[in-house]
Design a protein that fits this description.
The protein is mostly helical. Helices cover 88% and strands 0% of the residues. It has one domain: Four Helix Bundle (Hemerythrin (Met), subunit A), CATH 1.20.120.520.
Length: 145
């Protein structure tokens, strides 16, 4: 059995984590133009990650494993919550409000870590087991997003 799906998404989680840290770092220096860029990069990466899951992984998993609908439903709700936090972060950066930015980032970090733990511990291993033999094609479709 392969763990290609789990590795792919876990690596993307780490990339998003690094981009979140870059936001925090640039905001802490007061370099607001760089913070705008860092926030955009983080937002784009996280929204892309959600799209890869919601448009490709979750439907494939739900198609072959009817029991996956519960966990994927929870993940979609959490994605929605994180999108709202991203909107708040973008607004806070635009307003040059460092205190609110740090609050938004702290909340995003906490929620994303809990979310990632569930995906990495439950959902991705389930996907690797359920989608055996199709991970290469699936990953090519994910890369296209």
């Amino acid at each position: 059995m392969t763990d290609a799906i789990a590795r792919y998404f876990t690596e993307d989680h780490r990339r998003c984590d690094r981009l979140l840290a870059a936001c925090e770092s640039t905001i802490s220096t007061g370099a607001w133009e760089k913070a705008d860029d860092a926030t955009t990069a983080f937002r784009d990466a996280l929204v892309r990650h959600f799209a890869m899951e919601e448009e490709v992984l979750f439907p494939e998993l739900e198609q072959v494993n009817s029991g996956a609908a519960g966990p994927t439903g929870v993940m979609r709700m959490e994605h929605h919550q994180m999108r709202q936090l991203l909107d708040g972060l973008t607004a806070s950066v635009s307003a040059r409000d460092a205190d609110t930015c740090f609050g938004d980032l702290e909340t995003l970090h906490m929620i994303s870590q809990q979310h990632n733990t569930k995906e990495e511990g439950i959902l991705y291993p389930l996907a690797d087991r359920s989608l055996q033999g199709g991970s290469e094609e699936l990953i090519m479709r994910l890369d296209a997003i």
